[in-house]
Design a protein that fits this description.
- By secondary structure, the protein is of the alpha+beta class.
- Helix content is about 30%, strand content about 15%.
- Strands 1-3-2 form a 3-stranded antiparallel beta sheet, covered by helices on one side.
- Helix 1 packs antiparallel against helix 2.
- The longest helix is centred in the middle third of the chain and has 22 residues.
- The protein is globular and about 45 Å long.
Length: about 160
């Protein structure tokens, strides 16, 4: 039978290499990674970088080296302490890497719940945000097509 799961995701783009000390800081945090937390990394570059950032809604092009997605996919019947520990770890990993790497972009298809990422529109759409809001206002002024992190008809 199907059992419900608790899912939480965070992502960021990496656009620079880091030094040894910073790498050790991240590795120490990774050693504490709770079970049911996964980290995916995907390379950037190639064909994606041939287009200009304003060519599509996908603004994440040069100089991004790769994208990191961390997510928790825990079973509903796990002890609550495990779930809380995993969610705290995800937030801590995101904030630590933000401080070390200085990431400012997140991938809109790896949706963060938004409860602790207040700048999600800027992180998802960057310099394309104003143009996308204008398109939204023209195509869907009543915001019929929406979700908690959709592009709004106005800022």
């Amino acid at each position: 039978s199907f059992k419900q799961r608790i899912f939480k995701s965070k992502s960021f783009f990496v656009s620079k290499f880091i030094g040894y000390v910073d790498m050790v800081s991240i590795l120490l945090l990774l050693e504490q990674m709770p079970r049911d937390v996964t980290i995916d990394m995907h390379m950037g570059g190639g064909e994606v970088d041939r287009l200009q950032p304003n060519s599509t809604a996908f603004v994440h092009r040069v100089p991004n080296l790769f994208i990191v997605q961390t997510f928790y996919n825990g079973k509903q019947d796990h002890p609550k302490t495990e779930t809380v520990r995993a969610l705290i770890w995800l937030r801590e990993f995101f904030e630590t890497t933000k401080r070390i790497i200085g990431h400012t972009e997140s991938y809109q298809n790896y949706v963060d719940s938004g409860d602790d990422m207040k700048d999600y529109l800027q992180r998802y759409y960057g310099s394309n945000l104003k143009r996308l809001v204008q398109i939204k206002r023209e195509v869907d002024p009543d915001n019929y097509f929406r979700n908690p992190q959709s592009i709004p008809p106005s800022l």
